[in-house]
Design brief:
144 residues; mainly alpha; 8 helices
């Protein structure tokens, strides 16, 4: 994988992202992002997500998947997210999260990005394209 723009452009692109994100039609999305950031400490302390927090993450990623989140029970969400957040194995983390209805790779990596104790990148089609991946499949079958 290779960046599709000069690395020196990252600071100016990050600034443009923030300016756009907080001054456009995405203001509600930006507020939701800040709410998720503010939840980090509490979620990390309890080591699991509630169904409501999962719904917020799914909304932040893509409103299309939110309806599927309701198919998960509260217990299932707590158990699977708890195991994924505590696992040291990368495949287990994302694989377990993908077992939840409405959670594909983008939502799984968003959960880990916001709430895993270690820094974790958010993967979306746009982020993959920025490093040269033209064809990317972000879902694991049943969640499409």
């Amino acid at each position: 994988m290779e960046l599709q723009f000069p690395e020196s452009d990252i600071p100016s692109l990050a600034k443009k992202y923030c300016e756009y994100w907080f001054t456009s039609e995405y203001t509600e999305q930006a507020k939701l992002e800040q709410e998720l950031i503010n939840m980090r400490e509490a979620v990390c302390a309890q080591n699991y997500l509630t169904k409501d927090i999962l719904r917020k993450v799914a909304t932040w990623v893509s409103r299309r998947r939110v309806a599927l989140i309701k198919n998960n029970s509260e217990n299932t969400v707590r158990e699977i997210t708890g195991y994924a957040l505590q696992s040291k194995d990368e495949r287990v983390r994302r694989g377990d999260l993908n077992r939840l209805d409405g959670v594909g790779v983008a939502t799984a990596t968003a959960i880990l990005h916001f709430f895993h104790k270690d820094p974790y990148p958010f993967l979306s089609e746009n982020s993959a394209k920025s490093v040269g991946e033209r064809k990317i499949h972000l879902s694991s079958g049943k969640n499409m």
